[in-house]
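idk why but the lab printer keeps eating my pages so im just putting this in chat instead. protein + iron/sulfur cluster:
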Amino acid sequence: MKYMQNSNLKFRSFDEVLRTYLKRQEEEGKEKRDNNWWFASELGTCLRKQFLRRLGVNPVQKEFRIAFLAEQGKVIHDRMEAIAKQAGILVNSEYTLTNEQYRYKGRFDLLVNLGNGTDPYLSLIDIKTQRPEAFFRRAKLPEGQRVAAFQKKQLASYFYFARMIWPTIRDARIYYLDRGGGVREEYLFKFGKEAFKEVLDELETLNKYWQEKKLPPCSNSFVCRNFCKPLKKELLKVESGEISLEEFLKNHGQENKK
Ligand code: SF4
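predcted complex ->
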């Protein structure tokens, strides 16, 4: 990008305005964010990654492109919420669910009533916007694999904990939106005991590692995006007992010291 060489300007380009805004948002978000939970959006991903994130270890700098996509996603979410409201079906939105016992925190997108006045039908909706390539790569997978296991787990956790507040929720849905071409797909789930057990088992496992101050193993998960790669050597030392977890944390800035 070519910048104008004029020192009187506050911003040299519009892109700089956007980047400044997103950077500030990220900094403010970091300050406000209470990391001391297991987040629904991370369930089903690498246990070690979840553990390190809760400790405030974050070796990967977020790319500007990702921050921009998140911003774009927010706009779409807000529109979906407005549309549900206008249709008179919105029960709740962007609701934060927490559970102290499991140290669980999750925020679902929409709770809507798809039924009529005499027969309400509560459905929980998770909106996932995707790049066209990602949307069509996923949509071409064999049936049964088109919703990633970790996304299903995330949804099951919303369903489980939201039903403690709204016991009449009947189903949970993932609504995929192709950002590029406007194609949509909707998957409906009626989770049962087995799905809830998987969610609670994972939370229990995480809590066990946490209480024992023990680093969970690497799960070689494809969704990790090499999160801990920059710290590989040090993590190997923790694993082998050469250094303690506390020593490791001293050198790798904790955002959250609770
Ligand atoms: S490299 Fe292994 S431990 Fe690190 S985030 Fe990925 S799966 Fe987890």
